[in-house]
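Most newcomers find our protein records easier to grasp once they have seen one. Read left to right, the backbone structure tokens trace the chain's path through space. Nothing more is needed to start thinking about how sequence determines fold. An example says more than a description, so a record of this kind follows:
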Amino acid sequence: MSTRLPPTPYAPRFDGLTPATPVLFLDFDGVMHPYDLYALEANLRAGLFRWLPLLTQALASYPAVRIVVTSDWRYFSDADRMRELLGPLASRFAGCTAFSRGFTRADHIRQVVQAETLQHWCALDDDSSVFHAAREDPRFVACDPATGLSEPLVTAALTDWLRQLPG
């Protein structure tokens, strides 16, 4: 299936990526904490990024994995804020996907994969385009926005991807 990729209105810069770098494309809302009308208020009280410890633990034995943020937070947060939000994973932040209207989140991920010729990547996201992409490519891991990374099937998919990384 041919997918039309979005034009890049600017050239995203990714720190330290090579084709062999393992990259985790990461959404925030619906992946790192629940995302729904009621959960947003609860998240503000209970703290955003409640599942960050799960991701930190999963990545602990895989120091080469870099993070590219796909979240809508990229529209209003700069690189320093992204690093702050990632807490103990801040040093793994490599950048954010581009901004292109009329294209899906999955399109933006594919654009980076193609432009950087990435060989090892996985995307955790609750965007509907990722649900569709996951049907054809298991590297797209669709998250339920209420359970995100806390869902055992999501954690298992991430763990499987990590275990398949070379050396």
